[in-house]
Amino acid sequence: MLLDGVGLAVTSQHIVHWSPYPGACEGMAFGTRGGAPVNSHKNARLTFEGRRILVFRIIHEGLPVREAAKAQGVSPRTAYKWLKRFREESKAGLL
To answer: Is the pLDDT of residue 11 over 70?
Structure first.
């Protein structure tokens, strides 16, 4: 594709996390949940901090789940999932 006479090239990137065991970190986020590695997918909307903010808004600010979910860009179902995990496991449930 040319833009103002300048050719633009787009290449994909593969992010690799170093590990002494080849392939051990593929498709995994850093952290654990119940001793098992946390699987993160490429379209995940919330990081740990985003999940913490979501739960804080619901529990401490009294924001309805639907409003908190909308503000964070996730579905109410997802918000309820993280709220349940937080209630069961505290901060560890948000990893």
So the answer is: no
Burial class (CB in 10 A: 0-12, 13-18, 19+), 5: exposed
Helix (H) / strand (E) element for 77: namely helix 76-89
Strands 6-7 and 28-33: unpaired
Give the range of the structural domain holding residue 24, as residue numbers without chain letter: 2-94
Q: Number of folded domains in the chain?
A: 1
41/11 Cα distance (integer angstroms): 20
Give residue-wise pLDDT tens across range 16-30.
444 444 444 444 444
CA–CA separation, 57 vs 41, rounded Å?
24
For every residue of 34-72, DSSP letters joined together read TTEEEE--TT----HHHHHHHHHHHHTS---HHHHHHHH
Closest CA to 82 of 42, 71, 90: 90
